[in-house]
Specification:
33 strands; 25 helices; single chain; six-stranded mixed sheet; about 35% helix; alpha/beta
């Protein structure tokens, strides 16, 4: 029903399958009022819409027409339709004249594609007793709806809405309990007041705490979110669907949406974008028009802007630059900037979903970039890597740093009593933003060279580098810091090192590939892979390592774009023979064994278990439940997604081990 086609952080480009066609997500569902249809939203990019089943139910004429002819003909839309159950009216008026079962039955009767149970929307910041009472009813009704759908063998998909107000533990509890019901989609409800009051920081907390308990194998819908300025942020948190009537409601009030906020027509001297409306008309033209014509044109603009932003977000996911877009968009308003900083507190949650390698370089746009998954992941890897006795810290040069670092390195400073240094027992690292310390042996691995940051440091970046030095100095007996680093950071308590002329860096390709293997596959992988008569073949054009052999037996290839190691059959055997179970492994069931051995791709439904540290695009070993090596390949999803999905590819197999 839902498949992931591309991903970046928690953002997904996916496909949601319904009876009336497929929907490519992230997607906006414009709200269609069953009595007031003025705009053909499909003409402007809508693949799916949402309307209110309760309003149709309450109007006898609409109700009978929907029953006789179907919902799609009623609102004149051929694609997938989601219906709300009347929960919004319940939140506004305090009561509705329909039961949970009745509204489920009615939605199936009028042939909606995605129906919704009658949940209780609990406003933000209510007292806890009220939130708990509402949550109890919401969960009871969600279970009743799922059970009733199964009993009646209904064909529509079913929403179960996450509630809990702004009590994060209640949001988690609700999401966890709903996940047990096996519903089809999981909207996050009652967040419109947060967005209307610019409480985006609280929105981040509500969404991230809900997402943490929701299954990854379903589409997630952020109810009522329709302003394009927040789409990128919400997609980065894992939201796949949005719905809103903002396009028409704002138009009725002469307001134009944009990714930078909202423009009032009365204040416009120039049109805000290059859509058809903005290209054809001036603000004066619109102001001179009759109200209805002006409203429809502004609504068209609002739809253009919204769908254009979603297309841009999808492209950012494909190329791996979603977080740069998020950071850019969130600078349009202080409350949004606060929200993206709050999202930084959930870096560990985001990292589980973030591919290790991407098409796009890492661009540092400000201190918020220091909280991205790539930075957190590198810091974790660096802490795990074995340390030598001495550390030499160098200033940044051109990238890759190792290519432009050799021989004598300049003047150094040392903290405390200096001692003679053994260069064979020394780690050489470059200090730079945004990754702190970068060992020269692994500096070509994505994204340690594939990044850029301003040379003029902001205060947060300087503090980040100082903290990095202070933390990692504790791991070493002696730390030497280049004079340029000491001067730039104004480090105190460091004295000149009298033997600076003796500090030299010598490149060693064997050490380099072993370090990369340890960084990529885990400590010990370098020794496991590269034993014997190691022969390294380099590109004649670029000088980069391309192939690594033991004699004539190929062990690995090194991918030019990101310097990650691509296993051969021999490399897979070596890695499997030395690395402990379940490290780097995807375990498949008996049904899948013969297909894996033949080199066929592995689908999620055949996976029994996998290493929790596997991320999308990782090189992995495919084994059976007795840990027999069957094949090797590239993960298309992260471990948490592989274990939850029952459809779609998990691993693109490179080769099977069948003789």
């Amino acid at each position: 029903m839902f498949e992931i086609k591309a991903k970046d952080n928690m953002g997904r480009v996916g496909v949601l399958k319904t009876k009336h066609g497929e929907v490519k997500t992230p997607a906006l569902m414009p709200v269609i009022h069953p009595r007031k249809q003025t705009i053909d939203v499909g003409k402007y990019g809508a693949d799916i819409v949402i309307t209110n089943a309760y309003l149709i139910y309450k109007d006898e004429n609409l109700k009978q027409k929907a029953i006789d002819e179907g919902l799609h003909k009623l609102i004149n839309f051929d694609g997938p339709i989601m219906t709300d159950s009347g929960s919004f009216q319940l939140s506004v008026y305090g009561d509705v004249e329909i039961t949970n079962k009745e509204v489920i039955e009615f939605q199936e009767l009028i042939k909606t594609d995605i129906g919704t149970s009658l949940d209780i929307p609990t406003a933000p910041f209510v007292d806890r007793e009220k939130a708990e009472e509402d949550l109890k009813i919401t969960l009871e009704r969600a279970k009743e709806a799922v059970d009733y759908k199964k009993e009646q063998n209904m064909g529509m998909l079913l929403n179960s809405v996450v509630q809990g107000s702004t009590f994060l533990d209640l949001r988690r509890e609700c999401a966890k309990e709903l996940s047990k019901l096996d519903a089809d989609l999981y909207p996050i409800g009652a967040v419109v007041p947060l967005m209307e009051s610019y409480h985006y920081k609280d929105l981040v907390d509500v969404v991230m705490n809900s997402m943490g308990e929701l299954p990854d194998n379903t589409a997630r819908h952020l109810m009522g979110a329709g302003h394009p300025m927040i789409f990128a942020l919400c997609v980065a948190m894992g939201c796949d669907l949005f719905d809103s009537a903002a396009y028409i409601l704002y138009a009725e009030d002469d307001r134009l949406l944009s990714t930078r906020g909202t423009f009032k027509l009365e204040n416009l001297q120039e049109m805000p974008c290059s859509c058809e409306v903005c290209s054809k008309y001036t603000p004066d033209d619109l102001r001179a028009m009759p109200k209805e014509k002006r409203r429809d044109l502004i609504a068209q603009h609002n739809l253009h802007v919204s769908f254009a932003e979603l297309r841009l977000i999808k492209q950012a996911i494909y190329e791996g630059s979603l977080m740069e877009l998020v950071e850019e968009r969130c600078r349009s308003h202080p409350a949004l900037l606060e929200a993206v900083r709050q999202l930084g507190n959930y870096s560990k949650d985001l990292e589980k979903y973030d591919p290790r390698s991407k098409k796009s370089a890492f661009f540092y746009t400000g201190p918020e970039s220091l909280c991205r998954s790539e930075v957190l992941r590198h810091m974790q890897k660096l802490r795990e890597m074995p340390k030598k006795s001495n550390l030499v810290i160098l200033p940044p040069s051109r990238k890759p740093y190792s290519k432009f670092t050799s021989g004598k390195l300049g003047e150094f400073y040392v903290q405390g009593q200096e001692s003679e240094i053994d260069l064979n027992d020394t780690d050489f690292m470059v200090l730079d933003v945004p990754f702190g310390l970068i060992p020269l042996e692994i500096d070509e691995v994505y994204p340690l060279s594939q990044n850029d940051a301003p040379r003029i440091r902001d205060v947060d970046a300087i503090e980040f580098l100082e903290d990095f030095i202070n933390e990692f100095s504790e791991y070493y007996e002696q730390v030497l810091i280049h004079s340029r680093v000491v001067n730039n950071l104004e480090l105190e308590s460091y004295g000149e090192y009298s033997q600076s002329d003796e500090i030299k860096y010598t490149k060693d390709d064997i050490k380099k590939v072993k370090a990369i293997a340890d960084y990529q596959f885990g400590i010990g992988a370098g020794e496991a892979l590269f034993t014997g008569k190691i022969n390294i073949e380099k590109s004649k054009k670029t000088g980069k390592i391309r192939h690594i052999y033991d004699g004539k037996a190929l062990i690995v290839n090194m991918r030019a774009s990101d310097s990650y190691l691509i296993l051969s059959k021999e490399g897979a055997r070596r890695l499997h023979g030395k690395m402990p179970y379940p490290q780097n492994r995807v375990v498949v069931n008996k049904d899948s064994e013969p297909f894996a051995l033949d080199g066929k791709s592995v689908f999620c439904k055949f996976v029994v278990e996998c290493d929790e540290n596997i991320r999308a695009k990782d090189e992995v070993l495919i084994v059976n439940e007795e840990d027999k090596l069957l094949a090797y390949g590239k993960a298309l999803l992260g471990a948490c997604e592989i274990e939850q999905f029952n459809t779609g590819q998990a691993i693109k197999t490179r080769k099977g081990m069948k003789k």
